[in-house]
Amino acid sequence: MLECDLEAPNGFMYSAVLKACAFAGDLQLGRLIHKRISRENLDNDTVLMNTLLDMYVKCGSLSDAKKVFVNFFSANSTSWNTIISGYCKEGLMEEAISLFHQMPKRNVISWNSIIAGLAHKGSFPALEYVCMMHKEGLKLDEFALPCGLKASSYFNLLAMGKQIHCYAVKSGFECSCFIVSALVDMYSNCNLLSAAMKLFDQYSSCDGLGYDRLALWNSMLSGYIVNEKNKAALCLLSQIHSSGVCIDSYTFSSAVKVCLNLLNLRLGLQVHGLIVTCGYESDYVVGSILIDLYAKLGNVKNALELFHRLPNKDIVAWSGLITGCAKTGLNSLAFSLFRDMINLNLEVDQFVVSSVLKVCSSLASLGSGKQVHALCVKSGFDTEGVTVTSLVDMYSKCGEIEDGLALFNKMPERDVVSWTGVIVGCGQNGRAKEAITFFQEMIQSGLKPNEVTFLGVLSACRHAGWVEEAWNLFKFMKSEYGMEPHLEHYYCVIDLLGQAGRFKEAETLIANMPFEPDKTIWCSMLKACEAHKNVEPVSFIAERLLATSAEDPSVYVMLSNAYATLGMWDSSSKMRKAGKDLGIKEAGISWIEISS
């Protein structure tokens, strides 16, 4: 039309093309049309300028939108709502609220934009604005009510959620898909699953829901998952699939989450197959959770293949893969992925940082750990409990216990995990006295130690050779807290008794264990026999070791060495020959970190 030069475009024509630019995200063409509008003095056309403003907002150029709005002298409520909505969608709530309060006459759309923006950010003022809107005499509609319910759900405010529920019923919205779905979400997240299920059963067959029934199903599915009702979630998934409805990305995300909760690879593969056939494997939400699933199940190869195929990777994909690599011992790969995240200027959270610090701990890489610590300080994660606990663990395992203690002492709030971390760290660094002191301080603070805490303090006693203290703690664990000791707790006490030469007590404890002793316990007893030149129990220990670990070459080497130390040369030669017949023990490997 422009090339023909026969007819000049008017305001209506420009509006139509600007709408097309907004849908297509063509900011460059939109700016060219803006220049033509200015040249042709069409700036006073309110409808046209509102369309221009909307185009800039939808193309994500708020700076251009703001320039248009500031110079828009005939701005009406549509203009105000468009710019406010733009700021809300970008999460710039301070700017949006400032404009909202400057608006000459606010309407339902203005209120809804602010409430939705605040609810999306999980901000408590969302509920305050819902109440203010109600007091202004404006009717809360199918847009405001779900946002209010979302905020109630986020802050676990069941009473407020029930009030909004009452308002929805009185206003005749009981069959609104969006409101019923939001109600199911609210009750599920406020730990009142029975109320959510009652609503779901009541309205899932409601004729008014029509094609939006999937939204309600998805809400109930999410509720089951949040409340760890995985069998119920699987039944609902089966029902959704059998209904023939077109499943969306939210349903598939929930299906993968069920597999994650159950750690069920077979089920995960079936869901993955369905995702591929429905064309959702490249969806960044579904793909990210799939990566997390495979990584958590230790199938890092599949997780990596999916990761490389995924066009848009969010923090779930990155953190899932990094955590999976760390858990399966692929520490160098985990650290390499973390470096890629930093180099790509991707935002990392405290959970990713925590996983990477665990990698530094496993590698005993103090230099890398200090770099991650510096990143924590720059990013403001140095006050987060999960990060500080990981930093304490990293410094402890790298032998810098003083730095770990300094961090721990600065923590404003300490939970069981942080106390356990510092107790284990002290034990590993030969600070048994401090480990027991911290343990006592933890109990005095009113926190209940868990099995790992007891293991940490028992290990500290084991390293220090404190038999009586370990015995008392071992008994205290059951008598005071009703905890049944695990194999690791028994090992600490048995090892200590063996070191002290108290073989009868060690043997009695082994005999009274509620489970079969493993290789670690028998090896501990064998070393104690070597140390104390006690020949008597060796034959029985050797018998038990060979019964439990007959295919392990290292067992034959240990037994041969023990027999030699005790002067039992014939038995030593037999064991060495049996070990050679079985296969040579793999040589140990040492490594060092080289600064680049």
From TrEMBL:
**Where, in residue numbers, are the PPR repeats?**
76-110, 314-348, 384-414, 415-449
Q: Quote the PANTHER family the UniProt record gives.
A: PENTATRICOPEPTIDE REPEAT-CONTAINING PROTEIN (PTHR47926), TETRATRICOPEPTIDE-LIKE HELICAL DOMAIN-CONTAINING PROTEIN-RELATED (PTHR47926:SF342)
Q: What processes in GO biological process is this protein linked to?
A: RNA modification
Quote any Pfam family the record assigns: PPR
Instruction: Provide the alphabetized UniProt keywords.
Output: Repeat
Its taxonomic path starts at: Eukaryota, Viridiplantae, Streptophyta, Embryophyta, Tracheophyta
Q: Where are the transmembrane segments?
A: none
Q: Keyword Repeat: yes or no?
A: yes
What Gene Ontology terms describe what this protein does at the molecular function level?
A: RNA binding
**Protein name, per record:** Pentatricopeptide repeat-containing protein
